[in-house]
Amino acid sequence: MAAYDFFSRRTHMQKRAPCEKCGKMVAPYESVRLGSIEEGYQHLCMACTNAEIAEHAGVDFKHPEYLPMKLTDVEGIEHEFHFNTRLLGNRVAISALEIKNDEPHGYSFEVLTNNPEEDTLELFRRLFDRMQRALSQRHLNVDEYGLHITKPDIVRARIDYDLENPESGPLLVIDGKEVAWDEFGRMLMSFEGFQFKMEIYDISEER
């Protein structure tokens, strides 16, 4: 089966480029490189990618298009989200990326189903509900002393990659904000003598 690489923040491709099949101009976060080492790779939009995967897998799949959406968090701050639907053989994933200046920054959500012929609208509803729950939460507060962890002392974060300082450790995204690993460590110092448990799970899960 052909291999495909999805966008990540590690990529150096920052500009929109045409899909090599349909000609649509797409950003890196809404496209993939599909192909193989032997036959080469193509830069394709998600609709064309899903059509190729569906044909190969023998799946009846209709690619849905969702318009960008703006949601407001608990602090009244507006966030713009763009959506991607990916057919992964016998699974379907819908993701929501917060976009700032035509690049992903901040919140990121995903839901997954093991039934490629499931109603994608229902899958989208699950994603939307998760987004609303996340934006209604606040894990960090800021005051004159800087950022600190709110009660009840639970922090949910996404592990990301710091392109500007790759040797500085992971970059955390908490409440849609990028927090350096060292900065998070300083926040933990207020809990000196306490214990904590780190739990790592897939982006499609919610805990």
Key phrases:
single chain, three-stranded antiparallel sheet, disordered N terminus
Write a short abstract of this structure:
This protein is α+β, with helices and mostly antiparallel strands. It is 17% helix and 35% strand.
Word description of this protein:
The protein is of the alpha+beta class and about 210 residues long. It has 2 domains: about 5-135, no CATH class; about 140-190, no CATH class. It contains 3 helices and 14 strands. The strands form 5 sheets. A 4-stranded antiparallel β-sheet has the order 6-7-8-9, sandwiched between helices. It has a 3-stranded antiparallel β-sheet with strand order 1-4-5. A hairpin with a 3-residue loop joins β4 and β5. The two termini are about 35 Å apart. Residues about 1-15 have low confidence and may be disordered.
Summed over residues and divided by their number, the pLDDT gives a mean of 89
Question: Which structural class best describes the helix and strand composition?
Answer: alpha+beta
Bin the helical content: 10-25%
Q: Please state roughly what percent of the residues sit in beta strands, choosing from under 5%, 5-15%, 15-25%, 25-35%, 35-45% or over 45%.
A: 35-45%
Number of helices: 3
Cα-to-Cα separation, first versus last residue: 33 Å
The stretches of 5 or more residues where confidence is low (pLDDT under 50) are 1-13
Shape: elongated
Count of extended strands: 14
Largest sheet: 4 strands, antiparallel
